[in-house]
Every structure is written in C-alpha cells, then in structure tokens.
Amino acid sequence: MIRISTILVVFFFFCKLALFAQAESPGLFFSSHEVVQDERTSLHLTPDKPFRFPNGFSIEFDVNFRQDDGYYGYIFRIIANGDTNIDLVSNVISDDANIWLIYKDEILLSYKWADLPSIDFGQWVRVRIDFDTKNARLVASFNEKRQEIQSHGLSNLKDFQIYFGICKAPSFHSTDVCPMSIKNVSIYKPEHKLFRQWILGKHYGNKTYDNIRLAEARVENPNWLIDKYIQWQKLTEMEVENLNGVTSDAVGKGIFFLDDKAAYYLHYKSLEIDTIPFTEGRPYRSETRHDLIYNKYTGELWSYDFPNPVINRFNLKTGKWTVKRPETNLSVYGHNNKFISSKDSSLVTILGYGHYRYKGVVNIYNKKESTWKQIDRSDQIAPRYLSSAGHLGDNKILVFGGYGSKSGRQELSPRSYYDLYEFSLLDYSFTPLWTLPAPLSPFVPAETLVADPSTDSFYALLFNNGYYDSYLQLARFGISQPEMKIVGDSIPFKFRDTETWTYLYLNEEKSNLIAVIAHRNTIALYAIAYPPLAMEEVLQRPPANRFPLSYAMGVVSTVILIFLIIFVLRKRNRRISMKANASLEPLPVIRRRQVSAIYLLGGFQAFNAKEENITSSFSPTLKQLFLFLLFHSAKERRGVTSARLDEALWHDKTGGSARNNRNVNISKLRTVLEETGSIEVINIHSLWSLQFGDTTYCDYLEVMELISKAKTDVLSANETCRLIGLLQTGELLPNLQAEWAAFYKSNYTKEVTDILSLLLNLPENKNNTTLRYHIAEHLLMIDPLNEEAILIKCSSLSAAGKKSQAKQVFAHFTKAYEELMGKPYSKRS
Q: Which residues contact residue 812 at a Cβ distance below 8 angstroms, ignoring those fewer than 6 apart?
C-alpha cells in the first residue's frame, strides 16, 4: 500500500517548471496572483535615489508572459518627479487591448495581443520604451512593433524611480503583478549611451548588481530562474508499506518500485503512479537489499537473489512473476552495482558486500543455461561496496569510488576509495583512469552516476557514510582528468547501509537530474536542472566599498610611516636576530580584544560593540544555533538548509513545531547579534549562513584563514607565531558536547594537526629553533605520542642549553608511551 505523505509540487511550482522548460538561465520570475500580496515579487531599480535624466532616457528588457489564474497586473511602474506615474500594464485575456502604456490616468498607447509579431505564452518578448522628454515624445516597441505618440506632460520630467511588479512608493502603492518573468534590463541615456544593465542572472540573495557601475537593484520575494540549476526541488515523498526495491525505467522518464502486492511506475513529468497488481508469484524479498532491475530489451522487471540460479521475471502486462514462491538467501552482495548488458541483454553485477567481506567480483547471468558466472577482479580493483556506476556508451561503464579494503576483509583497514575505473561489458575487465587525493571529509557515492561524454564529465551524489544524519551533495567529475567540483545545494539524508539506497538519474525530457532516496519504507524524489551549476557560478559578489579620497590619503600616509618604522627596527634588530633564534623565546601573548568579538577557543565568549560581555545573552539553544551556522558558513562556504537545522537542533519536534522553533530562535539570534556590530544571519538560495562584517572578530575564523593560507602559500614567521599563539589560547569549545558538533571539532583537530606538521618541516622554518619548539609543543598537546614532535622539542631544548630539561621531557614521553602502548618506546628508523 502506498501513502503519499507529502507532495510539494503545488500549482505555483508547476507554473515555474512550465516556464523553466523554455527559459534561458537568466531571469527573474515574478510571483503574481497565485500567491497572496505579501509574497508577490518586486524589482526596484532605484532603491537609493531616483535616476536623473533631464533629456529623457530609454528602458529595454525581455519579458515572458505565462498563463496563470490572473492575467492583469503591472509590468512596470515609473514614478517621475515624485508625483507622476507612468505604467506599463497588461491583461492578456482582455477582448479589447492587452497591453497599455499609461501616463497618470491617461492611456497613451495600447497593443492587442494578436497584433504583436511572434508572441505567445512562454516566449521572450523584447520591449523598448523611449522617453524623449526634450521633445515630449514617447516611442514604444514590442518585438520591433513600434508606436509613437506626443505627450506634453513628459517635457518637465527629470527624476525617475523604476519598479517592476509590486510598487511600494508612497501614494503609488500597487500589488497587482503581471504573471511574467523579466531579464536583460538596460537603461540608456540619449543617443543610445548604455547607462545601466541588469542581466538578472547572477545575484546576491535579494540584490543584483548591474554590469556598468555595479549599481544595486533590490528584489522582494525573488524567484531567480538560474536558481533551478543550484537548488534541489523536492518533488514527492511516499510511504510504501513493505518496500522491496526501486529501479529506473532505463529511458529516464520514471522509476519502478515494489511492495508485497504490486509493482508501481512513477512518471517524472506528472508524478502520477501506475499500479500493476501481482496476479501470480512474488519477487525475491529482502529487507537488507534491493536487487531489482528493469530489462529494457525484454520489457520486464528482474528480481535476482545470489546465488539462486533463477532470475524472477515480472511481466508488466500480465502482472505475473515467473517464480511463484521464491525463497530468499542471506545477502552476500549487498549494494552491488547492476546493469543490463547492451551486448547480449544479460544481467551483470559488480562488487558488493556480505558475510563481513567486501567483494571485487563480477557476476554475469547466463540466460540460456540459467547460471551465474563469476569472475574475480580483485587484482584489478580493490574489493568494495557503495560504489557508483553508470553507462558511458560503447559497452563501457564508469565505476567510481566506494568503501572497502585491499584484502576484502572488513576488519583489515577499510577505507573510502576516490578512484575512477572504466569497466568493459565485452571482457568484464576494469581499467583504472585516475585517483583523487583523499579529501578532508570522507565520502562515498550513490549507487548510480550520470555520465556526459560530450563534456568529458560525470555527476555523482556524495555522502559521508560515517554518519546516520548526513546530507547528499552533488559533484561534477572529469572523466579523463581527476577533477572534482561541488555543484548545487544539498539534500538532507539518513544513511544506514541495510536500510538506505540512493540513485541519480537523468530525465532528458525535462533536462533534470533526479535524485531518488529509498530509506526503509520511504521514497523521496528531488530534481535539479541539468547541467547543474556551482554556487559561485550563480552568486554575485557585492561591490567593495569605495573610500573617499581624504580617507585614502590618510591610509597612504599611515602606511608610509609604518614602513619607515619597520625599516629602522629591522636595522636595529639585525644584530640580535641570530641570538634570538638560538634561545627559546616565549611567543607574544595574544591579547584578546573585547569589542565586537566572538571567541571559540578555550570556551565560548561574546563581546558587543560597547566592550560588554554578552555571553549570557546566548541561551543554550541560541549558542548551538549560532555555532551550527558558523561552522557551516566557515567550512562549506555556503550555509545550511532549514531541514538540516531542524534535524540537528529540533529533531524531537514535529515539522510545524520545528519550523516555529527555528523561526523564533533565528529572530532572537539576529537581535543578539545586532549588539556585536556586524554579524548577520542571511538566507541565500534557501541556505542559512552567517556573514561577518569587517568590524567583528572571531578567533576560530582567523585560525581557519591562516590554515587555509598555509595550504597554498608560505606563512611568514609572524603569521606562524600568531597561529601558534591563537591555538595556545585553548581547545575549541571544550564545553560543547552536542552530537552534531563532534564532526566539526574532530575535523578542526585534524586540520590543526596536519598544518602544524606541515609547518614543522618547512625549509623556511628549519633554522628557527624557537618557532619549531612551539610548533612541536602544541602538536604534543594534541597528540602526546607524536614522535617527530617530541624529538624536535627535545633537540630544541638541547640547542638552547637546557639539556637536563630535554632529558626530563623525553623520559616523560617514553613513560607515557609505554603506559598507553603497552610496550617500551623504540625510535623508528
């Protein structure tokens, strides 16, 4: 039995999809009568001050009209001189005229829909309006269909505010919005001089900047068309009692899934479900695996069960299975990858897991003899499961990643793999293509990938199999080159290898990638436009502030003075530099500022702009909310979904209650953060994050910035000392015991350990005894048995003439080593 618990594709979403199918990536979708007034869209081109055009101007843009439940509304409203409205209004189902240009309460000109060339719903129409105030003349053009009129009221107009959609100007407020999308808005001065140009593609939340002067335009209730390439839309979620397998239809139009009574087919396009009841027989049944595949060559669903020699085939027309009372074996190839061979339509499976063993084998089902042929390829690919595979063409399969071990034994050093292979359906061999360096955060891919040979790339969904509460992240990889790029946002995800199956499919009909998640008895489908984009390909960075000349001159003078001081000090210090390096000088004490600052090292502390300690203003929930947003903003550089926030902080609440708690606490957090000076809670592309301004400091962020720089560049001695000094102020949030924080604290420790080991061995630091001593000392605080660090600390003490102290330190190390390891310490060769 199927229960569709949540279908999120409401009428509004279908309207957008219908338009998206024909839209280019730039553009702003205007929410209109399908939503209440508060949720309708406004684009304001003059948010700071009106444009001043004493001799007139021209405005040009593309508009795309859509069929909706309301056809009347404003395309734009221009307020001139603060007291005069000039409106472009539409009613595309009117029997009289359909588009009017209005001056105050007078219709200057109008168009009939039928008279406009090459215009229809879902098509882009080029519009241009010329306001010639000098000659009191107005010219309008729709797809080059021109009309011209004299209007003496235009001659005195100089200042212009411009709104598309909703207008909130005093005395001219309007909420009737034309059902439309807009893109490529250009403003021209007389003689066709381009003044402003907003493409309406890249954006920064509710702001977008023009291509000429980075002038800001503001949007209320934005629906950016380009966002369909970075945002997963949840299509549907279903509860399926006794779910027993999910598989693609092999042509990208839908999926099959089974329960114990019927087979079902879900159409991607309409989300309708066809039901094919079982009239005879049953599929093989297993709660710990989904061994089901659709054979497009026979038009059947195949259920298989290792090592059973009989494939259980389902006739979609008759509803009959070929096996009436199937008996299921214990799984020995869980999470295997499966294909129907284009060579001979046989079933081929690779890899898998069972009986505490990872598999490196290929299983081929011989239809004529009804037997399985097995080929061990452990000499070509390390045994593994949780790999991703997809057709490349010409009897070739791409196989990426997975989790396993070289020996195949679960207890012997299992790990994630980040390699790509080409698997041949002709001789069933694996050919290695490349291997990626291990990432800081491990991942495995979903079962299926989508290959795009035309761009020499493929797409895979990734997740960390070390966590139950996780998320899926889409990535684009090179085929011939080991390249990886994160694209799109993430999907909340729960993983347990005996309860969860995840697939990625391409729906060519709608140019979407479809993510299918089967967890226990729940199936969820998500869609993202294809080809997906990375966040930075959509996010438009705000322009940097421009300082006045007097301020800039002051900065230059200060810099010159600083250089003079440095020059004098360097001459004075050059004589004593060798002596300083020979002794173990203490590091400069890190003096903590107490104005607009957040501290995480040594414990959470917060100070406002008045130098007051406001730590107590953060309740336990507010503190966790702030830290959760901070870690996601710092590490992933983009933020976190509402669903992940709810799962981490309000997992014990129902959907509505969790949402209310989230909204209330975000509002409270914003109020508290206002005191710090310049920390904002922002929501961009449905992702929550923190944005730190220049006036607010955070020690954790400074540490991460120094670590990031050290990975790609050489830190100066002062920067290294600064890093060590910051680290010595204390452990990261020692009193935070939240389950979600364990990953970030562990990752932070690993990052610090790795970078200190790197700094310890840099040639630039080899002769700086003091620096190496302090690096080694902090490494030993993290890892008391770090052999390299103890040797460097002791040698540094000896070089500084502290040999007895060096012996004591080493003796303490060897004693601790023996107590922890159960054997005496012996120096490795």
A: none
Pairwise CA distance, residues 742 & 747, whole Å = 8
Number of neighbouring beta carbons within 10 Å of residue 610: 11
Four-point Cα dihedral 127, 131, 132, 136, nearest 10? 120
Q: What angle do CA 264, 266, 271 make, to 5 degrees?
A: 140
Closest CA to 99 of 78, 114, 80: 114
- How does residue 255 score in pLDDT terms, banded at 50, 70 and 90? very high
Report pLDDT digits (tens) over 16-38. Answer: 433 333 334 689 999 998 888 98
How big is the CA angle at 436 (ends 434 and 440), to the nearest 5 degrees?
A: 170
**Cα gap 402→511, rounded to integer Å:** 28
- The answer to whether residues 493 and 536 touch, using CB atoms and an 8 Å cutoff, is no
72-80/159-165 β-pairing: antiparallel
Rounded CA separation 289/337 (Å): 12
Q: Record the pTM.
A: 0.67
What is the spatial distance between Cα 537 and Cα 202, in angstroms, rounded to a whole number? 7
**How many Å apart are CA 243 and CA 288, to the nearest integer?**
11
E strand or H helix that includes residue 599: strand 597-599
Residue 542 near residue 217, CB atoms below 8 Å: no
DSSP for 161-180?
Answer: EEEEESB--TT--B--B-SE
Say how far apart CA 31 and CA 15 lie, in whole Å: 10
CB 34 within 8 Å of CB 15: yes
- Residues 6 or more apart from 128 whose CB is under 8 A from it? 58, 59, 60, 139, 140, 141
Q: How do strand 697-698 and strand 597-599 relate by DSSP bridges?
A: parallel
The structure tokens listed for 474 are 């889409």
The kind and range of the H/E element at 501 are strand 500-507
Backbone φ and ψ of 595, nearest 5°? -130, 125
Token code pair at residue 576: 């004593």
Q: CA 572, CA 310: separation in Å to the nearest integer?
A: 88
Query: Looking at the DSSP assignment, which residues form a beta bridge with residue 254?
Result: 267
The percent of residues in the chain predicted with pLDDT above 70, rounded, is: 90
Evaluate whether 523 touches 235 at the Cβ level (below 8 Å).
Answer: no
Record the tokens describing residue 687, joined without a space.
Answer: 């992702």
The size of the chain, in residues, is 829
pLDDT in tens, 522-550: 999 999 999 999 888 888 877 755 433 33
In whole angstroms, give the CA distance from residue 717 to residue 764. 9
What's 601's DSSP letter? B
- Whole-angstrom distance, CA of residue 241 vs CA of residue 771: 63
Beta bridge partners of 221: none
Angle between helices 741-760 and 787-799 (to 10 degrees): 50
